[in-house]
Amino acid sequence: MASEFRYRHRIEFAETDMAGIVHFSNYFRLMERTEHEFLRSLGLSVHADIDGRLVSWPRARAECSYEAPLTFEDEVEVLLRVRGKTRKSITYEFQFFGPHSRRVARGSITVVCATIDPQTRRMTSIPIPDAIGEKIETAPAEAEDP
Amino acid sequence: MASEFRYRHRIEFAETDMAGIVHFSNYFRLMERTEHEFLRSLGLSVHADIDGRLVSWPRARAECSYEAPLTFEDEVEVLLRVRGKTRKSITYEFQFFGPHSRRVARGSITVVCATIDPQTRRMTSIPIPDAIGEKIETAPAEAEDP
Amino acid sequence: MASEFRYRHRIEFAETDMAGIVHFSNYFRLMERTEHEFLRSLGLSVHADIDGRLVSWPRARAECSYEAPLTFEDEVEVLLRVRGKTRKSITYEFQFFGPHSRRVARGSITVVCATIDPQTRRMTSIPIPDAIGEKIETAPAEAEDP
Amino acid sequence: MASEFRYRHRIEFAETDMAGIVHFSNYFRLMERTEHEFLRSLGLSVHADIDGRLVSWPRARAECSYEAPLTFEDEVEVLLRVRGKTRKSITYEFQFFGPHSRRVARGSITVVCATIDPQTRRMTSIPIPDAIGEKIETAPAEAEDP
Questions:
Q1: Does pTM surpass 0.90?
Q2: How many Cβ atoms are within 10 Å of D20's Cβ, its own excluded?
Q3: A-chain residues near C72 (CB < 8 A)
Q4: Domain A4-133 CATH (choose: 1.10.10.10, 3.10.129.10, 2.60.40.10, 3.40.50.300)
Q5: B72: chain C residues, CB-CB within 8 Å
């Protein structure tokens, strides 16, 4: 059972904008990448065949608060914590730490477990399969922010 | 004084992902584009020289709730409403309407007025200049969601 | 039969990078968008069911030469010309015109007609269906650059 | 003196499109990232203050040929080779190797050495500074493709 994960990334040129900082939309891509690496660390994938069904995790909600900018070549550490788990959904919290381990942003994403029909691409929410649910648990309340 | 704006967009191929729908991060880009078109409709720019200073609008917070997916070539209308205005910040609310005028997502972005030092790229928050503030007002409470 | 198309676009904030100009990879997205609008103007789609098969156009080759930078809020016109058409492929040429109608870039994309298996996502090249091929023709040699 | 570099990357969800494969524009971002890691491995940066001037490397030309698709979670190795070096420019060649070390794409980028005026963002091409030029050399002719 895992409830926490850390992912390191160096800011790329293409992630910046003309203000000289990381474009705000890219924090969401970085949160998602951290989520996917977390799943991968558990032997799971965000988009996989499970018992003959294509199971994916469409996003229900996403948010981010920006506390300080990130710039080109900054090393950033993203700390993921599982903050909620229901029958069909998981809420991840993310904290971004930049140079000197200073927190620069904080966000969350809520994902819903769903099957995708390969022909129509239609999504239907489903209970989280046991093979996935038994590997992910909510972080203890004492796992508070630094 | 303006408090509302509508922007139309047709979903592009590059905005989709392998799940066959618009990637969730692209809703934030589309909110931003709507904000910029709103400013442009008022003769303003999100990144402009004002009285010899480079004035920009870094994001303090952004969020989105996803209600139904958007797919390639869908026509989407984004409805912007000014939901809050303080001395130094503006909060925009966005609603996304897809095919058959069905609402498919809803979000908000809070931006802070700031100057950027052209040499160091450092940002400093400032009171919203009058030339901008006098053109933007909070939407009336009765401007409720459809 | 069509061999030429023009698409207008205003440069967005998210298309710029910290050098203050449009990131070079975004010219390829803009070429693709122009291609898709061209197909749409002919009643076609780049990704469509034709006679029960999912027909798409994977890229075989893409290139771009950059002559002058584009910056935020520039209005750009992209001129597409069909430069080649074989049994299974089409080559589009693109010219980018920025402020004052100055040419700022030039590129090309070669696409191959293919079916996608909805289950495996595997692509197989096919002869261009008549319903598509009869609407697109190579630009006359005299359609030279301005 | 270096003329070759290898960069490994795992394909991210956000890099795919609705055809289920990596969007063709993302190969250019991956080429650029490899170039930047190459410079970084030499103690250089693609965007740096050198003797009080902001030196950057705008792209003059970019191209890519696609031989086989890449899909989500594929591990890809990008092999960079310096293929040309003039007084003011460098041409990098890139080969992409996917699963089973199969080559899936091949491209090149030509970059020009330039200074950026911090006020106007105007770029002016300059001879490659010695501190950079003495670290980068053209790959020997015998460094042929596998």
A1: yes
A2: 22
A3: 18
A4: 3.10.129.10
A5: 47
